[in-house]
Amino acid sequence: MDETLERTVPKIVTSRIGIEGSHTLETYLATGGYTALRKALTSMTPEEIQAEVMTSNLLGRGGAGFEVGRKWSMLKSAPLRYLVVNGDESEPATFKDHMLIEGDPHQVVEGSIITAYAVGAARAFIYIRGEFALGLERMQRAVDEAYRYGALGRDIFGSGFSLDLVVHPGAGAYICGEETALIESLEGKRGYPRIKPPYFPAVIGLYGAPTIVNNVESMSNMPWIVNNGGAAFASLGVGRSTGTRIFALAGHVNRPGNYEVEMAKLTFRDLVYSPEYGGGMRYGRQVKAFIPGGVSAPWFGPEQLDLPLSQDDVAKAGSMLGSGSIVMMDDHTCMVRAAWRITKFFHRESCGQCTPCREGSGWIEKMMRRIETGAGRESDLDMLLDACDNIAPGLSWPPAQTTICVLGPSIPSSVVAGIKMFRDEFLIHIKEGGCPYGR
Amino acid sequence: MADEISFILDGKEITAEPGELIIAAAERNGVYIPRFCYHPHMPSVGMCRMCLVEVKGPRGFALSPSCYLTVAPGMEVVTDSPKVKKAQNGVLEFLLVNHPLDCPVCDKGGECPLQDQVLSYGPGESRFVEEKRHFEKPIALSSLVYLDRERCIQCDRCTRFASEVALDPLIEFVGRGDRTEVATFPDHPFASYFSGNTVQICPVGALTAKPYRFKARPWDLDQSESTCTTCALGCRISVQSSRGEITRYLGLDSEAVNHSWLCDRGRFGYESTNSEHRIVKPLLKGRDGVLEVTWKEALTKVAHLINEAKRNSTPIAFIGGANFSNEGIYSFVKLAREAIGTGLIDARVEGDITPSLIFGTNSATINQVVSSPLIVVSSQDLKEVLPVLYLRLVEAKRAGARIVEISETPTELSKISERISLSQLEFASFLEGSDVDASIGERLSKALDDLNLLEAPTFILGRASYGGSSNLVERIASRLIGRIPKLSFLHVMGAANIRGAYEMGAVPGFTYGRVGSNLSTYGAASVVEILELAASKETLLFLLDEDMNSSTVPSELVERVRETSTVISIASLKSKITELADVVLPVVAAGEYDGTTTNIEGRVSRISARVTPKGLSQEPSVIANEIAREIGIDLGKYEPSEIFQEIVANCSTFGNLTYNMLSSDRFADGVVVPLTATEVSLKGRRRLDPVATPGLLAIENVGPAITYIAEEELRPLENEVSRRSSAINFDASFDLEVAASRSGFSRILVEKPLYAPNAQLAASESMQSLASQAMAFLAPNVIEADYSGETVTLKRSDGKEVVVAYQVDKSLPSDTIRLRIGTNYDLLNIVDPSANATFVTLGDK
Amino acid sequence: MSGFTPEMRARAEKICSLYPKVRSALIPLCHLAQEQAGYLREDLMIEIAELVDVTPAEVYGTASFYDMLHTEPVGKYLVGVCTNIACLMQGGEDLLEYAEEKLGVAPGGTTDDGLFTLEDMECIAHCNKAPALQVNYRFFGPVDEDGFDKMIDDLREGRLADDVPSHGTLIREERSAPIALTMDEVLKERAVSDAAIAQRKVQA
Ligand SMILES: Cc1cc2nc3c(=O)[nH]c(=O)nc-3n(C[C@H](O)[C@H](O)[C@H](O)COP(=O)(O)O)c2cc1C
Ligand code: SF4
Ligand code: FES
Fold first, then answer.
1. Distance CA A253, CA A286 (A)
2. I want to staple A88 with a disulfide (CB 3.0 to 4.6 A). Which of A97, A177, B574, B803 is the partner?
3. Cα A316 to ligand 2 centre (Å)
4. Does any CB of chain A come closer than 8 Å to the CB of residue B121?
5. What is the mean pLDDT of residues B402-419?
6. Architecture per CATH, C77-157
């Protein structure tokens, strides 16, 4: 571990997590809440806020990692524009937004109001994954408290700016995390992603109006950026990966959990083994492989443990930081079963619009199940790769796609990585007619 | 065109129209890109991914859906690279993952886009060895459409058609991923007037039509291009038959008329041609009941009746004929006016509008109307009268048109229009300067002013209420022209060839060629007047394929006629009329004859025979000619093509049109008369896409009517005068009694729904059950709140009354009753045939 | 069966008023219907259709896309055991198997007493507490066999009634603040601020 760890890195988005009653207005105000909003509305123009966010180089925390400031600047001007906050968090093994929504809802609300002001949104919506019942309750209460406090509604803090914010529950569909599916869902429809181009939300979004969609964690950064300036944020991290970020660490580690760390300064190994974070692998076992950024991301092996937690470095190595979820798998893990379980997830969650994803996910899942349960054939491996190739032609990273949205090309990630990294293990399953690991 | 854009397709530079999709531009240029979900007349969704091609973008070539991207100048597109081939191959293989491959027992086998494209672009064999998904075998989505969910490939065509084209979102995708299926809400069937289109566009055998299921295999089918003769829109169709029976109608992609769509009543009406209800032999009513006789005997009897009538100066009259071809009506007009010498002839059994209105105004084509930025409508609900015109308006709306509807009550069109709530009576008085509600008046004036600003303003005009006098519409038209001089009209009329009946002279005061002719000495001009005559004085009455059941004539009048007069019914189907007629002559039905027909815009198009006539039935022209011959007069031509040339020779509005031209590729969609330059410059017909309409190209055995002959030159008429009949004084004063409200009385508004019962509906097995129920919709103030009877009695001040089922309708203005024509033959007895409005009270409350 | 109770109807109308386009209320109203009836009864779907101005088929088609919306009755407690990747690593599948045994039903099944419906769930974002499960979307974890037994007993005996309402009740917090600005007012206000921004741009 290098000396940067000793430097005091501020907790930007998780500062209140763990404090008793962190979700209440009382606690929020007592810990500096809504000072940024007051500052933004009373002493800053929307352009100034946009400039600060641009300077911060905050990368979206929803998965795609697009610069938030740049996205805002692409918003088409129109009489009506909307802000939609993406709290649908359903990427397997990602649980950071869940924590922010339940633990610090006011921070999300404050960030959202600041953003709505900065982009001139006519109304803001926080779309929360339906399964987050407690989160929905707390967010709703926070919004009500914010209205009562004067942070929402007419003429906020006497600034002349007014805003209504609606908490919207999802109803259980992973694909609704994809921003255009989210918009369709918010319009009361089936969560079908829209074809792009031309429908980027910033051009045609909710109700056909230009719309900004940002992640809950992205929003949670706003109060700090307004209070401390974009430059302070950008001074943390390395290169394009600025500020801090929550990593959701799960799988075979001793201390699974959400850890907010400065970007690009730590490596995966640091996060997994440092006692204040993962505390090492469970039972002291070895790392067999890990998923660096949600199940849509191709897997890494132990040799990539020393990559820094930086968006660009991970991309260069052929995967992504994605949703910020890291799943560790030890040497007792059956990789066929792991990959099968992930394809089962995609099969269940494919929206069903486009043929390759709808049918491919089911076919691939069935082949994987066959191999894991002992009915595989050697030719299945090439057939699997070919079916994957028909969804993500070239099987390269970032993937090409024959589908409408990127759920499709996410299906092959674990299958292809599994076969590439652990072909022998697949073959053992096939030859021995089943899984050597039991379960 | 000057604003065409050029782009590169497979290395060659070609051009596209602005806004054109890659897939369409490629197709026009001879490059066919495979597809499933794309349909030229529906919004693209890019879901099936079959049409992927490589398009060059900022980061090099990427696979993109060609059905979704519009051509941009300089765009580079590759449709035949290994990458494209692999992707298409992959999509086909994926589609087969859950497809049952039961082609040998599938109705679509042999004309299936999936089957065809697997053969052309597919992997050859499936590597899929897993279990496929299973569903219970076919389920009924409605009484007409069945769904086999296992075969469905989730292309979204049927569901998209229902929600976006027909605005009847009654079928939806249900479930997610590969568990997605098409379904209705429980106990809410897919009761759309247009449901059959979903069967036509289904690219696999998932949707089937009840009347066609298991009836034929594609390779046994013969087909002919023709025109639907169910309503006056004249949708272009392919009539298909197998072993001498009509088996199916498919909508053709006529750019001018129906854009490939049909309504169900038109699509499935052919069942009546095959039915047991057909009259197959001439019938004579004698002292001992009805006798089947030979044609010779029947014709001798008819001639005897005519000769006797002439000798006794008994009036001879002709009613109906609007369902005949132009040639059929023309022959009867000649029989009546020339051979017999009577002016008592009228085809307008629905009381359609006056000839002066049709001949004295400029008519607009459907395309002119729907391409206008502002479309104004005042008529009965278009979805009921001209269903496919409604679809064209929905399409216009989607393309950005503004639709203004002037109507007394909300209609189906109201979903896509700004409705100005005004009755036609009020509309007419508004145009004459009377006051209406200020805000309504303001909106109406504004709409009319906006219309006046257009280069080519158009107006869809028809009767809002059936029964009673139709002067109201004429009066509205004349005042509108006064206000908007350039205005042209699309006249809403019901019966199939009613517009042809005007041109052929089967209307009072005009013979063919729009030539004025004296009214009869009896002073009777309209259908109702002729019937009144026949009810009061012995008359020899010919009913030309008219069962009077769906007409807007009081049944009581028809019965009185029976008591006084002799009736000769020329009919194809058994009905109440054929039961009471003295002579019944069997006439051909749809699918059995050649000829031409004329639609509401004046479009003349070909009808073609697909099967031989049932029994001894004959074409109307043959019947007319034989009757004439029996009374010693030779009418001349028998062959439809020859009669048509005679029509052209006698009708200057037809210009230099020929029968052959109408069979040519270029003019197959028909030609509008009076012939205009715009019509002549129309482009040829769109190529048929076997995926858009499976079943068309798959059938190689093409029937005789599709003869693509060399193009002849069509010359537009030279001047305006020949198009508009100058002889008509359109500003004639109107003898109208604008009865406003009468205290204690309610005004009735009569509507004829699509499924108004008639002999044809009764003979169509699959649609019988859809016949509309007669119903009185009452404004809430018309009926006492505590009334609990199941029916109401409507009473006219002169004592006439009917008993009818009712519903209270909150959308109606006070003191109004909306009457829906249905299975109550006597309903129209309540309408005063001579007045603009009928007033009734509720009896025995 | 006759649709929403008056109290629910009032809540439904309030929800409708939150959105610029009323169809957006469709999913929240489905949750409300489930709160009333435990699942989406047909009469409730028909009433929702009327409230948001679509056909019942559209409500059904939309609702059926979402896992949380049930068009068939489910038990009072919907027990969903996560078997996705993080829980898989920590024995999620064993827990599911145990749950099947304990409740005597396979995933998708409901116990004879109508109390429990078992589900094989995707990730519920409770991965730091793997293996995790949810009951009516209230989360538990890590859960072992004893813990599962105890939880089921507690649910049966009503000891968890405060934490876990019966199936369908999602948000117990009722929105108190109504919408403050109509869309027209917003339009006017934003026009003023947009003009100010444009002017600043010109000056700069
Ligand atoms: C299949 C799929 C699922 C996604 N799920 C989520 C999600 O649950 N939460 C989220 O914030 N973004 C999710 N995204 C990313 C969003 O589309 C979008 O990029 C993001 O919300 C933008 O916010 P950001 O710029 O603040 O990151 C998902 C994307 C895809 C393709
Ligand atoms: S890739 Fe899958 S999830 Fe995405 S739109 Fe296509 S079917 Fe739906
Ligand atoms: S995606 Fe283009 S035809 Fe289906």
1. 11
2. A177
3. 26
4. no
5. 96
6. 3-Layer(aba) Sandwich (3.40)
Candidates A349, A357, A401, A410: which one to mutate for ligand 2, based on the most atoms within 8 Å of Cβ?
Answer: A357
Index of the ligand 1 atom closest to the CA of residue A61: 27
Q: Domain A3-234, what fold?
A: Rossmann fold (3.40.50)
Q: What percent of chain C clears pLDDT 90, i.e. is strictly above it?
A: 94
On chain C, the residues whose CB falls within 8 A of the CB of B174 are 60-61, 64
Q: What is the pLDDT of residues B565-586, one digit of tens each?
A: 999 999 999 998 999 899 999 9
All CATH 3.10.20.600 domain ranges of chain A, comma separated, are 237-330
Residue B736, pLDDT > 90, answer no
Assess whether pLDDT exceeds 50 at residue A90: yes
Q: How far is the CA of B57 from the centre of ligand 2 (A)?
A: 22
Q: Please report which confidence band the pLDDT of residue C204 belongs to, taking 50, 70 and 90 as the band edges.
A: confident
Q: Return the pLDDT at B833.
A: 80
State the alpha helices, DSSP H only, in B565-708. Answer: 576-580, 620-630, 640-650, 659-662, 677-680
Ligand 1 centroid to Cα of residue A193, in Å, is 12
Q: E strand or H helix at A250, and its extent?
A: strand A244-251
Ligand nearest to the CA of B50: 3
Domain A335-432 adopts which CATH fold?
Answer: de novo design (two linked rop proteins) (1.20.1440)
| B196 Cα–ligand 3 center, Å | 22
What pLDDT was estimated at residue A411? 97
Q: In the prediction, which pLDDT does B728 show?
A: 45
The per-residue pLDDT of chain A, averaged, comes to: 95
Cβ separation of C122 and A92 shorter than 8 Å? yes
* Chain C residues closer than 8 Å to B185 by CB: 42, 45-46, 55-57, 59-60
Superfamily of segment(s) C1-73+174-204: NADH-quinone oxidoreductase subunit E (1.10.10.1590)
Question: How large is the ipTM?
Answer: 0.95
Dist. CA A406–CA A193, nearest whole Å: 10
Residue spans in chain A of domains classed CATH 3.40.50.11540: 3-234
Interface test with C, best of B182, B184, B185 (most C CBs within 10 A): B185
For residue A4, what pLDDT is reported? Answer: 42
CA atoms within 13 A on the CB side of B223: 25
CB contact under 8 A, B90 and A403: no
Contacts 24+ apart (CB under 8 A), B424-429: B424/B378, B424/B463, B424/B464, B424/B465, B424/B472, B424/B473, B424/B476, B425/B472, B425/B738, B425/B740, B425/B747, B425/B836, B425/B837, B427/B378, B427/B476, B428/B472, B428/B475, B428/B476, B428/B479, B428/B736, B428/B738, B429/B738
Q: Which atom of ligand 3 is nearest to the CA of B46?
A: 1
Tell me the pTM.
0.95
- The span from the CA of B39 to the CA of B682, in Å, is 22
Where does the pLDDT of residue A109 fall: very low under 50, low under 70, confident under 90, or very high at 90 and above? very high
Tell me whether B183 touches chain C (CB under 8 Å). yes
Longest distance between any two alpha carbons in chain A, whole Å: 73
CATH class of A237-330: alpha beta
Subunits adjacent to chain A (3 or more Cβ pairs under 8 Å): B, C
Domain residue ranges of chain C, discontinuous segments joined by +: 1-73+174-204, 77-157
Residue A411 main-chain phi, psi, to 5 deg? -60, -50
Q: Which ligand is nearest to the CA of A392?
A: 2
pLDDT in tens, A209-259: 999 999 999 999 999 999 999 999 999 999 999 999 999 999 999 999 999
Which positions 150-189 of B are in contact with A (Cβ < 8 Å)?
153-154, 156, 173, 175-180
pLDDT tens, residue by residue, C18-61: 999 999 999 999 999 999 999 999 999 999 999 999 999 999 99
Residues of chain C found within 8 Å of residue A169, distances taken between Cβ atoms:
27-28, 31, 170-171
Token output for B147:
């769904």
Question: What's residue B339's pLDDT?
Answer: 95
